[in-house]
């Protein structure tokens, strides 16, 4: 017998035994999997990230040229993932101020309720109020939140009720000038308290309208009124945009200093006379202060 026959028989025998062992192992695993299904382990499958749209577009020539037959020929359209819709943020009407505590910057708090979810939380100055914005101011009956670059005020239930009552009881403005009531041709009556309140801060009164010098023959004859603020001193005495104020109580208004002096002198007066030019015509108005 040749020498190579014995090693060959041994190798074949070992190969056959290995195959039989693998088959037996698979059969045992299959039977055990049926008897104990929970014990069978699912092989881990690696999850690959989805290809980018740019990578997919590199396969476009395959479809365009029909390399897999006419049935698959066409254009590859890139798929654009849509971003989820952003949820609307908390609105001012969804917040209610339940109480405040005021102290130093780090000891000032506001208890705020989110009405829709009934969630109540305490916020310190500078804290983010839900998803609306940071808390920037706290008063006894109100708090302010900076939302979208604007200060939004929320009130306590007591302040809300008081504001509603005040709005309902406030009388409507009278006459053409808001607080000036016409009683005759060129004659008006002005509420003394309202006039004095407007004159308490003469600096503020000068911002109630824009005054530009009106020139005549190279000299300032008066001041043209524009941007009249409703409720301000100029609106109170019935001034309109475009009027040229010449004199107050016969005192000429031909310089900023005289304009300030004239306005300051109105406080405590019982009568006011305005000389002005309206629509190109000289006009005088007389006011009784009551």
From TrEMBL:
Keywords associated with the record: Cell inner membrane, Cell membrane, Membrane, Protein transport, Transmembrane, Transmembrane helix, Transport
Pfam families on file: PDZ_2, T2SSC
Domain (PDZ): residue spans on this chain: 209-280
Entry protein name: PDZ domain-containing protein
Organism encoding this protein: Geomobilimonas luticola
Subcellular location, record wording: Cell inner membrane
SUPFAM superfamilies reported in the protein's UniProt record: PDZ domain-like
Keyword Transport recorded: yes
């Amino acid at each position: 017998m040749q020498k190579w026959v014995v090693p060959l028989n041994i190798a074949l025998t070992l190969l056959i035994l290995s195959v039989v062992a693998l088959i037996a192992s698979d059969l045992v695993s299959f039977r055990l999997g049926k008897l104990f299904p929970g014990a069978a382990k699912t092989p881990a499958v690696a999850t690959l990230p989805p290809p980018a749209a740019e990578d997919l577009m590199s396969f476009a020539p395959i479809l365009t040229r029909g390399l897999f037959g006419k049935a698959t020929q066409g254009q590859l359209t890139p798929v654009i993932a849509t971003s989820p819709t952003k949820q609307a943020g908390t609105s001012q009407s969804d917040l209610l101020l339940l109480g405040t505590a005021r102290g130093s910057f780090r000891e000032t708090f506001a208890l705020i309720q989110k009405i829709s979810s009934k969630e109540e939380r305490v916020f310190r100055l500078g804290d983010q109020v839900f998803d609306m914005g940071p808390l920037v101011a706290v008063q006894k009956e109100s708090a302010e939140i900076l939302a979208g670059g604007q200060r939004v005020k929320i009130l306590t239930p007591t302040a809300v009720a008081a504001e509603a009552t005040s709005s309902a009881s406030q009388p409507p403005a009278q006459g053409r000038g808001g607080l000036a009531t016409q009683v005759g041709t060129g004659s008006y009556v002005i509420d003394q308290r309202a006039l004095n309140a407007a004159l308490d801060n003469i600096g503020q009164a000068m911002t109630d309208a824009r005054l530009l010098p009106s020139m005549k023959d190279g000299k300032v004859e008066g001041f043209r009124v524009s941007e009249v603020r409703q409720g301000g001193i100029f609106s109170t005495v019935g001034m309109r945009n475009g009027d040229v104020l010449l004199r107050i109580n016969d005192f000429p208004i031909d310089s900023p200093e005289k304009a300030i002096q004239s306005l300051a002198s109105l406080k405590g007066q019982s009568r006011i006379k305005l000389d002005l030019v309206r629509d190109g015509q000289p006009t005088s108005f007389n006011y009784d202060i009551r």
